[in-house]
Amino acid sequence: MTSPRLQKVHRLLKDAGLDGFLFMNRANLRYLCGFTGSFGALLVTHHKTVFLTDSRYTTQAHQEVRAQQIIAYRLPAEGIVAQVEALGLRRIGFESETLTYEQVQCLRSRSPAVCQWIAETGGLHTLRSVKDADELAAIEGAASLAAAAFEEVLHRLRPGCREREFAFELELAMRRRGAEEKAFDIIVASGWRGALPHGIASDKLIARGDLVTIDFGCRWQGYHSDETVTVAVGAVDPELRRVYDTVLEARNRALEGIRPGVALRDIDALARDYIVAQGYGDCFGHGLGHGLGLEVHEKPTLSSLSDAVAEENMVFTVEPGIYLPDRGGVRIEDLVCVTAEGCRCLTRLPKNFRILPA
Ligand code: ZN
Ligand code: ZN
Questions:
Q1: Ligand nearest to the CA of 286
Q2: How far, in Å, CA of 119 to CA of 97, rounded?
Q3: Which CATH number fits domain 4-126: 3.30.360.10, 3.40.350.10, 3.40.50.300, 2.102.10.10?
Q4: Which of 106, 290, 291, 344 is most buried (most C-beta within 10 Å)?
Q5: How far apart are CA 6 and CA 9, in angstroms?
């Protein structure tokens, strides 16, 4: 019986008129055959799956990989081309965003003249965007682990604490609770640094009256979480408070608009139009969100340029923000799963305005 995941690849082969597809992206390898190592290749044809790797990973591959055949190669291109010839493949797709120019040139130069290597992006973008039950459980598990760690260390966010110290405490708390790794460099952007949408934790000391944006997540069972909370340390400037309420309302409007069949660019517009109407249109430069799973950033993308449509069990972030240069900023980020009727938040930290003692 072909797994639903491989069926998606078979459909891709058919739609693109390919004899086979070469996967080398780590997340795709894990998704399609269970391999968790850092280097290998999976060749999928209409009737066969062959996994190839080198001697560092053969034992691991025999334990983990679901494929009809596992082959050890000396050189990747040599091993892959030998299989392509043995299987008589002529049109072979590859991941244009993963393979380097050099890798592709190497495959082409070693292949028989009849072989065509075809760069593929379109069909691949949707491969992992709709999640199955196991994936949803892992993402939700990662999100609740990270949230519990956040609540555990939040009391340390006081005037005089360095952004980097807080980030370190949060990372430790996530690891102690069983996280495999932080999902990305934790963002702790306080006061004026809040205007930097990707202000990775610095040496800046938290000060009374700062709004602090904390964007964090962890990896658990191979899956990631991603959530952003903005909190006040003591009383803040009334305009920043107004900015907070604007971002929160934009987030609420986006969440209310999510359901299967809605264009993702329209969900982006629900949040964006509100922010524009409040006079902060120039202060929200990034897209509303991104897909997430085995990678922190994956398809689909939520922006004005997105051409994807929400489907049941798609997982993506909703993260509107307003950034006022030199003054501060607010971002609120949740992770949602599209349901039959709307959406469900996989992140559970409260998003109402929160003032910490200072
Ligand atoms: Zn984030
Ligand atoms: Zn994000």
A1: 2
A2: 9
A3: 3.40.350.10
A4: 291
A5: 5
CA distance 231 to 150: 12
Nearest ligand to the CA atom of 183: 1
Question: Which has the closest alpha carbon to 21: 135, 102, 127?
Answer: 127
CA of 15 to the centre of ligand 2 (A): 31
Owner of token pair 């996989």: 346
Please provide the size of the chain in residues: 358
Contact 36, 222 (CB under 8 A): yes
Give the model confidence (pLDDT) of 324-341 as tens digits: 999 999 999 999 999 999
Q: What is the CATH number of domain 133-356?
A: 3.90.230.10
Q: For residue 228, give the ligand nearest its CA.
A: 1
Q: Quick one: tokens of 353?
A: 């305005």
Q: What is the mean pLDDT of each run of 10 residues along the chain (358 residues)?
A: 90 94 96 95 97 93 95 94 97 95 97 95 82 97 98 98 98 98 98 94 97 98 98 96 98 98 98 98 96 96 96 98 96 98 96 95
